[in-house]
Amino acid sequence: MTTSSSSHRFVDLTGMRFGFLTVERRDGSKGPHAAWHCKCDCSATSRVTSQDLKRHHSTSCGCQARKLQAEKRVTHGHSRKDFNRPTYNSWLSMRTRVTNSKHDKFKYYGGRGITICERWNSFENFLADMGERPIGMTLDRKENSGNYEPGNCRWATQKEQCNNRRTNLGVSGIKGIYPYKGKFKARIQFRGDQVYLGTFDTIEAAADAINKLKETE
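Request: output the structure for the sequence above.
Response:
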C-alpha cells in the first residue's frame, strides 16, 4: 500500500504576494517549515516561513504594526496627562455633564433630556467631526435644546455662546461678567468654587480671562 505524500509536497511561493509582502526567493528553513526571503512594499526585507505567509500571520515586515501603533498614540495622546489636551477635555466634560447624575450641571444637560449621539461616544469620531478646539473657544450647541451631535455643535467664544443661553445671565449679557465702576468684573463657578479673575477695562478682556480658565478644564 502506497501512502500519499501530497500533504508534504513542496510549493514554490516565489513571486506570490501576501499582504504587503512579495516572496522573492527560498531562504532555507525555520524549524520544520520552509523560509522565504520577502520584500515589503516599504522596501524592507524579512525572512518568513511558508506557514506564517499562508496563514496571514505575517503580512508586512512589521511596518504596518508600527504605523498602527503610531496612529493610536497620536489619537489617544489627547488623554495623556502630559499632553495639552483642550479638545479631549471638552469631549470629557460634555460626556460628564450629560451622563453623570452627580455632576453639578447635570440638571441643565442630561437631566433635561440632552443626549450625545452614539458616534460621539468615541473621542476619535468627535475629533474627526469637530477638529482641534481653537484657543479661546469652548464647545457650544447651536440649538440650546438640541443634542450634542454633528451639525448642532461648534467651537464658540464666550460672547457667541451668550446668545444661546436659556435665561438672562447678567446685565453684561455674558455669564460671569458684571459691570463695576465703568469696568467689568469676571467671576465664575469653576470646579465647585467661585473664582474671581479680576476687574477689566472691557467685556472682551474679561471674557478672554474666563475662556483661558475654561481651557484648563
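The first strand starts at residue 17 and ends at 18.
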